[in-house]
Amino acid sequence: MKTSIQIGKIMGIPIKLHITFLLILPVFAYSFSINPSYFGFSDVKPAIFRYTLSSLAAISLFVCVLLHELGHSYVAKKHGTNIQSITLFLFGGVSSMEEIPRNPKTELKMAVAGPAVSLLIGSTLIIIYEFLKTGSSYFPGEPVLRFIYLVGFINIILCIFNLIPAFPMDGGRVLRAWFAERMSYIKATKAAAGIGKMFAILMGVFGFLTVSIGGFWFMLIAFFIYIGASEEEKSTEVSVILEGTKVKDIMSRNILTVSPEMTVEELVDLMFKHKHMGYPVVDNEQPTGIVTFNDVQKVPKEERKLIRVSQIMTQELITAKEDDDAIIALKMMTVNNIGRVIVKNDGKMTGIVSRTDLLRSVQILE
Q1: Which residue range(s) make up the domain with 53?
Q2: Does residue 234 share a domain with residue 252?
Q3: Cβ pair 278, 270 in contact under 8 A
Q4: Is the pTM for the entire model greater than 0.90?
Q5: Residue 234 C-beta-side C-alpha neighbours within 13 Å
Q6: Could you tell me the mean pLDDT of each successive run of 10 residues in the chain, 366 residues long?
Q7: What's the chain's Rg over C-alpha atoms?
Q8: 271 and 323 together in one domain
Q9: Contact at 8 Å (CB) between 340 and 359?
Q10: Residues 250/341, Cβ–Cβ less than 8 Å
């Protein structure tokens, strides 16, 4: 099941909506409709106008989150980092970058760009609000003015919240950039991640103590910050450890291949014998696809004698070159959600590298 849907592109970057975004949007709209003046529209009549303003406020919130992420992405692209997508989900937005630049000054610019966009939007709307307020005799009940104030206020909060030094939030990345000027990149990451985890624990404890008045959200945010800090710390560690290692240094050269005419039942026997979970499919000495255990699982047992490998294999091959850095192969697997890539040299298949090969190499190099 796809958890995200693409709604368009901006600056060549695919913009996606996660399923959690679609679930939370009505919740925010309802929340704005029942909250009192300044932070909601509970007193606005008629009801249709109240719910329209509330819905527009919820949509505006996530549009501003998108602009926040585009701020990061613009600076990243300007410094040569490719952005694969921006996804809006439950707690905001995430820019999926191929890699975070190791240059502390570049990372600092990228980290600050998002909050700067939020601050610019927020301060502009607050100034507009103050300007209109002085010339309005209908304030404070004027709903449109309140709408402008609310969206502006939320952007100011978004800026401040993201600058909390809780890695991997923007403030945490600013902190890592500061550390990276004074120590190795991996030590800087560990230090920033440690502080991020500490903030997450404190936030979780606060949420637990105030769970009766909405602290559940703090606990949930704390959980995601802690997991995010741990994952980014490990990801950075792996990237640094694999530096200088080439695909040819870790790939398996003894390739077991299968024929497209082999039955799925025969493939299962082969998997049981050799304990490999994926095999290149070769026809006339040319790779035509790859078949994995996941493909086999989709075929009912009673049909495995009749179904051929060619009917279930993945025809789109993800390939690497022998002289590629090992980290490039890992990124290919992560981005495409696969467990192995075929290695080619001068157009010929010369090996295969799996996620297991990479993890074993990391363990040895550590």
Answers
A1: 4-163
A2: no
A3: no
A4: no
A5: 8
A6: 75 83 83 82 85 90 88 88 78 69 86 92 91 62 81 91 86 90 88 90 88 75 85 81 84 85 90 85 83 88 88 85 85 79 82 84 80
A7: 26
A8: yes
A9: no
A10: no
